[in-house]
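Practice problem 4.
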């Protein structure tokens, strides 16, 4: 779930010109407010923690044990929070150009919108604990098996927002980027063709889909427990509007780009350490 060159653009600083905001600055100000309302800085901080754990798993798998502090340092550098945030902000602002940002802010800055965001961030943070994650998966699986009406609402929300499919595509793109990073670093004795890499990535699709579906439902079921059914339905209704679709697409696009960059850099770092071990 992402190194880039430095970013020299301050997208979220409104500059006063003659005491007023220009149209462009006003738009940037709105996007900055939306970014804050969505608590994306908090979400990125949690994603970094997830990434550090993921990097540890990669190290253990690739190097057959504890890869040591040098690997941990490399992973931490790749998951640089400032760089992650800068990349997401730029992509977020680009994707939202000419969209109805006012409607997005109106929903997410409402009492219900803020409650939803707080619940989502809290659930994501809670799932950093493996015990909580396993319990959440079990609870969601039982709800699915029992055809719990609440789970039916959650499935509708996930379908409307294309959450499972978008996450499957994002995971496969990230895996492809990881392979490219390995190739860039010379991890393979001979170069693989793009077709060979794609074939291997596609062979992982069933497992990725199963794991993604399980995680999505467990996360949403945990996050939305305190909400009333009508609150979830209101979220579904907003998601079906043009503004709801636009913000959903912008978020997936911004985070997918970040994860692809991170995955490529994890592949490059892995190749360096693999070569070092062979020596």
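Answer key:
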């Amino acid at each position: 779930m992402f190194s880039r060159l430095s970013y020299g653009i301050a997208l979220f600083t409104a500059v006063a010109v003659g005491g007023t905001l220009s149209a462009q600055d006003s738009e940037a100000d709105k996007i900055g407010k939306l970014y804050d309302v969505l608590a994306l800085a908090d979400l990125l901080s949690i994603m970094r923690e997830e990434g550090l754990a993921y990097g540890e798993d990669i190290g253990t798998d690739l190097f057959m044990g504890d890869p040591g502090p040098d690997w941990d340092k490399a992973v931490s550098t790749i998951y640089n929070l400032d760089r992650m945030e800068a990349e997401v902000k730029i992509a977020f602002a680009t994707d939202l150009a000419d969209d109805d940002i006012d409607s997005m802010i109106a929903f997410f800055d409402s009492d219900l919108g803020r409650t939803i965001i707080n619940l989502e961030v809290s659930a994501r943070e809670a799932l950093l604990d493996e015990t909580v994650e396993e319990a959440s998966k079990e609870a969601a699986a039982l709800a699915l098996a029992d055809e719990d009406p609440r789970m039916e609402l959650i499935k509708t929300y996930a379908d409307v927002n294309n959450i499972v499919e978008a996450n499957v595509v994002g995971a496969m793109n990230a895996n492809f980027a990881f392979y490219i990073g390995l190739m860039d670093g010379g991890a393979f004795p001979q170069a693989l063709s793009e077709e060979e890499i794609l074939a291997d990535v596609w062979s992982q699709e069933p497992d990725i889909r199963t794991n993604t579906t399980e995680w999505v439902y467990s996360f949403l079921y945990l996050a939305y427990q305190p909400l009333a059914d009508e609150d979830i339905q209101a979220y579904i209704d907003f998601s079906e509007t043009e503004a709801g679709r636009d913000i959903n697409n912008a978020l997936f696009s911004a985070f997918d780009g970040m994860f692809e960059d991170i995955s490529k850099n994890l592949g490059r770092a892995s190749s360096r350490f693999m070569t070092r071990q062979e020596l």
